[in-house]
Amino acid sequence: MTRKLPRRWRVTVGGYGYRVTAFERIAGGVLYLRWWDRGRNNWAPRSLGHRDRAEQQARELAGALLAANEAEHLGGLTVSDLFGRFDRVVTAHAEPRAAAEDRRRIAVWTAYLGSARPMAALDRATLDQFVRARRAGTLTVPDVKLSARPTDRTIGADLEFLRRVCNWALSVTRSNGKPLLGAHPLARYAIPRNANPRCPVATYDRYLAIREHADAVDRQRLFGAFLDLVEGLGWRVSALCSLWASDVDLALTTARPYGRIRKRAESDKMGVEQWVPMATGVRDAVLAVLERNPVIGDTPLFPAPKGRGAWSRHHAKDLLERAETAAREAALKRDDPEAAAALAPLDGSDFNAYRRAWATARKHLPLKDVAEAGGWKSTDTLVRCYTQVDDETIFAVVSETRKVRAGRAKP
Predict the structure, then answer these.
(1) d(Cα 343, Cα 345) in Å, to the nearest integer?
(2) pLDDT digits (tens, 9 = 90+) for 241-265
(3) Is 253 exposed, middle or buried (0-12, 13-18, 19+ CB in 10 A)?
(4) Sheet of 42-47: strands edge to edge?
(5) How far apart are CA 80 and CA 118, in angstroms?
(6) Which three-class secondary structure string do you get for the chain?
(7) Pairing of strands 42-47, 10-13
(8) Among the listed ranges 38-47, 193-202, 292-301, which one has the minimum average pLDDT value?
(9) How high is the pLDDT of residue 252?
(10) In the chain, where are the structural domains located?
(11) What is the average pLDDT value for the chain, to the nearest integer?
(12) Could you tell me the pTM of the whole model?
């Protein structure tokens, strides 16, 4: 007797050119939306990640598609049309964290500008008002938590996102051959920057003090070795969290006397994949991890304490904060308030302070090599944002004894 499969739920809304289908691929599973993407000339699916409000979201998407079609027919472009297209064509294909951040900023700009506002009406005065409202903390967006006192860097990031969306719109053509956006509304607009950016550096003494308590705050007893990798490699914390056993090569060669370690492109912010030689301290840290978590192949070196996958950067940050608290409490118990004060949380930073320390300690080395080992695509970012001045180097500069002398006269 043939077994009947459960019937899968499906509903279609809208008409020609703006038809959207909500459906389930597996009976009882998460729901999806599907529509015809005219820009890509193909069907565009998107997982909703839940089983609620699917028909409502399908109707909202169909309405946005209809508005986009009407705007294209009339030759105009509304805020809703612009962000709707960007969400469907760009954001929908980004990795989850980036997609969530894009949609948060889309909600901010849509709430401020209004969904029906023509993009052609966006001018400098409107942008100035946005900056003032964000600085004053008076801008409110439903279901989005905004800081009451955002920095200029935070406000600038919102404007940079709008600039990115407009740059994309300038590169997209309508069916009539004209660009989606006729002119860039942010052309020559000065985006706010922090006048005095917070760039704290975690000293080696701080690292040693926190390292003593690292394993005690982690039930897996892996955070001590993780902190050693932070201090020894200078990589972004997301790349370290995503290390697999297959990313470690313990074979010894002349060029790699302690082996090598790989940073994979999919786990790196800049999409850089590379093998880097290990120093002796990094090798010791890796061996300590493998002793406590003996894994091979494509298996995380730092497995999530609950569930599947690897540590998240949020989990690593939580462990860092616990270790800092434990180190401060230990300093107070031994009646050393000065040491406790030195271990206060670094303003505006967590693991980035260790990355700056790594770069600053190597500023006497060729910049291109430091950038390559640390995962920077350009030496400009390395110098501008990570390499910091320090008293020892300044004293070496002012104490330089070499002098510029007249060259030997040419015959």
Answers:
(1) 6
(2) 999 999 999 999 999 999 999 988 8
(3) exposed
(4) 10-13, 20-24, 31-37, 42-47
(5) 9
(6) CCCCCCCCCEEEECCCCCCEEEEECCCCCCEEEEEEECCCCEEEEEECCCCCCHHHHHHHHHHHHHHHHHHHHHCCCEHHHHHHHHHHHCHHHCCHHHHHHHHHHHHHHHHHHCCCCEHHHCCHHHHHHHHHHHHHCCCCECCECCCCCCCHHHHHHHHHHHHHHHHHHHHCECCCCCECCCCCCCCCCCCCCCCCCCCCCCCHHHHHHHHCCCHHHCCCCCHHHHHHHHHHHCCCHHHHHCCEHHHEECCCCCCCCCCEEEECHHHCCCCCCEEEECCHHHHHHHHHHHHHCCCCCCCECCECCCCCCECCHHHHHHHHHHHHHHHHHHHHHCCCHHHHHHCCCCCCCCCHHHHHHHHHHCCCCCHHHHHHHHCCCCHHHHHHHHCCCCHHHHHHHHCCCCCCCCCCCCC
(7) unpaired
(8) 38-47
(9) 93
(10) 8-74, 79-197, 204-343
(11) 85
(12) 0.62
Amino acid (one-letter) located at 108: V
With CA atoms as reference, report the closest residue to 348 among 154, 124, 102, 146: 154
Give the pLDDT band (50/70/90) at residue 98: confident
Q: What is the pLDDT of residues 318-357, one digit of tens each?
A: 999 999 999 999 999 999 999 999 898 887 678 989 999 9
Type of residue at 171: S
Is a pLDDT exceeding 90 seen at residue 151?
Answer: no
Beta bridge partners of 262: 275
* 42-47 and 248-249 beta bridge pairing: unpaired
Per-residue pLDDT band at 219 (split at 50, 70, 90):
very high
What is the sign, positive or negative, of the torsion defined by CA atoms of 159, 161, 163, 166?
negative
Give the count of beta carbons closer than 10 Å to the beta carbon of residue 126. Answer: 13
For the segment 178-205, the average pLDDT, to the nearest whole number, is 81
pLDDT digits (tens, 9 = 90+) for 27-51: 777 788 887 776 566 777 777 776 7
Contact 278, 258 (CB under 8 A): yes
- pLDDT, residue 198, reads 66
